[in-house]
Amino acid sequence: MEKKQRVLIVEDEKNIVDILRFNLRKEGYDTQEAYDGEVGLALALQEAPDLILLDLMLPKMNGFEVCKRLRDQGRSTPVIIITAREAEKDKILGLDLGADDYITKPFNPIEVIARVKSQLRRYTSLGGKSG
């Protein structure tokens, strides 16, 4: 049996984590959750998820820093930023730091799932780890 792909959700709003977890699991993904940036970074490095959904405004360490540190460690795990920050400069900074996509809140869970699938397809076809 094929191993399920794992998505790490790094988000401090429990209701958003619940929505994302529900929709990802419904699509057959395993999920892990972190409610602050420090735990999110630690899980990303230790557990090597297949994809990370990352909020920017987090306790302890913001999403920009999490993304930067991941890339500084040589990790190529796809990162999709999901945030209420819609300023163009935030989008550019997030992408410059190594994020693969940027979604603003409020979001449509179906669109998030489509983007997750797209990033995982691309990552796997480029020789990233697969399930």
What is the string of SSEs from the N terminus onward?
EHEHEHEHEH
Dominant shape: globular
Estimated share of beta-strand residues: 15-25%
Main beta sheet: 5 strands, parallel
Q: Would you tell me the structural class of the helices and strands? A: alpha/beta
> Which strand order spans the largest sheet, edge to edge or round the barrel?
2-1-3-4-5
- The beta-strand count equals 5
Radius of gyration: 13 Å
Helical percentage = 40-55%
Model regions low in confidence, pLDDT < 50 over at least 5 residues: none
Mean pLDDT: 94
Q: What is the first-to-last residue Cα distance?
A: 10 Å
Number of helical runs? Answer: 5
Folded structure, characterized:
The protein is an alpha/beta fold and 131 residues long. Helices cover 46% and strands 18% of the residues. It is built from five helices and five strands. It has helices at 14-26, 37-47, 63-72, 88-96, 109-125, and strands at 6-10, 30-34, 51-54, 79-83, 101-104. It has a five-stranded parallel sheet, with helices on both faces. It is globular and about 40 Å long. The model has no long low-confidence stretch (mean pLDDT 94).
Features:
131 residues, alpha/beta, 46% helix, globular
Brief write-up:
46% of the residues lie in helices and 18% in strands.
Secondary structure elements and pairings:
Blueprint: E1 6-10, H1 14-26, E2 30-34, H2 37-47, E3 51-54, H3 63-72, E4 79-83, H4 88-96, E5 101-104, H5 109-125
Parallel strand pairs: 1-2, 1-3, 3-4, 4-5
Helix pairs in contact: 1-5, 2-3
